[in-house]
Amino acid sequence: MEIRVHGIRKAFDGAAAALDDVDLTIRSGELLALLGPSGSGKTTLLRVIAGLEFPTAGTILFDGEDASRRTVQERNVGFVFQHYALFRHMTVLDNVGFGLAARPRRNRPPKAEIRRRAEELLALVQLQGLEHRYPAQLSGGQRQRVALARALAIEPTVLLLDEPFGALDAKVRKDLRRWLRDLHDRTGHTTVFVTHDQEEALELSDRIAIVNKGRLEQIGTPTEVYLNPANGFVFEFLGSTNVLPVEVRDGRAFVTGCPVPVAEGIAAGDGRYALHARPHDLVLAAERQEAGLVGVTDLVRVSPGLVRVDMKVDGLPRPIELELPMKAGGWTDLKRGQALRVRIDRYHLFAA
Ligand code: ADP
Ligand code: MG
């Protein structure tokens, strides 16, 4: 099922538009992450796709057909939310079979068939043996897997997941991510997955759509959006960032008067820009004559595999963050107050 979101606008009474002219094509069988900060419109977009919310303007096409006026049932979507309320008084098996058992009689499968399907789905989400438990007797991760099995029971054309692992602890989230990717690869459902966690989006999805203030900033594979962010917002949202004011003059770049080599692929006319660089793209410069930023170490923190250093540079409002890989050496005797020279290996320039 291919979903096309075309010119979607959604305004709630008396508020700024929650979605503002969103165009997005979700390819058949892909796992797409909708990534953005809280309040950016992710849930609203998911609800518009599901038919739980009608857009103020625009259309939704399911496999090329206008589905904008179809109801939730007619769109046949499977849903999982962050706090998915399973029915507390029902066993796991009955929870999974609920969507089928609640159908009108004419297209309700017989009881034995519902049971068989529910058992099959519980095997798929690796919960065999827990059929007769109640939700209270399950861990958080198991409950979300029951919720997924329940969403899959109606044989949805699309699976919509709204921060489904948001309420779980970090370790369980990581396990469920792998597990969901694997499930997706086995079932091949077109899946839209909402998250505000960039690591989750990067690790899990085929493509990421980044939303901000009701608008789509960029869509692409994890590698594309990480390496070629469309703008400063996308760059900053995807990972730790140093933002430095830079001036380009005659094809040369200067940060607080220090020349920095013009990074590969950067072509910018003379003017002022915001230079965005990841902490791991800053390296200690060995040679005295090598171009680089000069500063003084502030905090030095050791964490597994790398050393994080904050460096104060005259003329910059905030310290620069560096991440030095331990295996590169040269970090063991870094102390606070030590002079450093740093080269910026990769960066992007965006409008200041
Ligand atoms: P996200 O899921 O990215 O956190 P939402 O889609 O929930 O963002 O919300 C986007 C914006 O729309 C927010 O400003 C929110 O307050 C507003 N909003 C969402 N739902 C409603 C509603 N039912 N009524 C009024 N405003 C809403
Ligand atoms: Mg939300």
From TrEMBL:
<feature type="domain" description="ABC transporter">
    <location>
        <begin position="3"/>
        <end position="238"/>
    </location>
</feature>
<dbReference type="GO" id="GO:0015419">
    <property type="term" value="F:ABC-type sulfate transporter activity"/>
</dbReference>
<dbReference type="GO" id="GO:0043190">
    <property type="term" value="C:ATP-binding cassette (ABC) transporter complex"/>
</dbReference>
<dbReference type="Pfam" id="PF00005">
    <property type="entry name" value="ABC_tran"/>
</dbReference>
<dbReference type="InterPro" id="IPR008995">
    <property type="entry name" value="Mo/tungstate-bd_C_term_dom"/>
</dbReference>
<dbReference type="GO" id="GO:0016887">
    <property type="term" value="F:ATP hydrolysis activity"/>
</dbReference>
<dbReference type="InterPro" id="IPR050093">
    <property type="entry name" value="ABC_SmlMolc_Importer"/>
</dbReference>
<keyword id="KW-0547">Nucleotide-binding</keyword>
<dbReference type="GO" id="GO:0015697">
    <property type="term" value="P:quaternary ammonium group transport"/>
</dbReference>
<keyword id="KW-0813">Transport</keyword>
<dbReference type="InterPro" id="IPR017871">
    <property type="entry name" value="ABC_transporter-like_CS"/>
</dbReference>
<protein>
    <submittedName>
        <fullName>Sulfate transport system ATP-binding protein</fullName>
    </submittedName>
</protein>
<dbReference type="InterPro" id="IPR003593">
    <property type="entry name" value="AAA+_ATPase"/>
</dbReference>
<keyword id="KW-0764">Sulfate transport</keyword>
<dbReference type="GO" id="GO:0005524">
    <property type="term" value="F:ATP binding"/>
</dbReference>
<dbReference type="InterPro" id="IPR003439">
    <property type="entry name" value="ABC_transporter-like_ATP-bd"/>
</dbReference>
<dbReference type="InterPro" id="IPR027417">
    <property type="entry name" value="P-loop_NTPase"/>
</dbReference>
<keyword id="KW-0067">ATP-binding</keyword>
<dbReference type="InterPro" id="IPR005666">
    <property type="entry name" value="Sulph_transpt1"/>
</dbReference>
<keyword id="KW-1278">Translocase</keyword>
